Amino acid sequence: MRAEYLLSLHGFDLASEQHTVRDTAFLMEQLELREELDEIEQAKDEARLESFIKRVKKMFDTRHQLMVEQLDNETWDAAADTVRSCVFLDKLRSSAEQLEEKLLDF
């Protein structure tokens, strides 16, 4: 990701760090989103899953735009946190899409 490279030029090594997002609201949101995906999997609810994927994509797009603005404004700490949240959302979207494939094959 280009953002990770730009941040590495300013002392942030996101690829190898074990740093977590400091935003406690986002940490709670992560837990809630993972729990919701687990519930969808248990219920095998394809319609709810489709809605979930759309919502996660929208969340990613919003944060991605924020990240671009933060990088443009050289607010490196904030941009690093936003990149971390984008990485989480991208992985969550991928997990949800894998579940979608699994449910369609079921």
Automatic annotation (TrEMBL):
GO MF term (any one): protein-folding chaperone binding
Keyword set, alphabetical order: Chaperone
Transmembrane feature ranges: none
Gene Ontology CC: iron-sulfur cluster transfer complex
Protein name (record): Co-chaperone HscB
Similarity-based family: Belongs to the HscB family.
Domain Co-chaperone HscB C-terminal oligomerisation residues, every copy: 23-96
Key word Phosphoprotein present: no
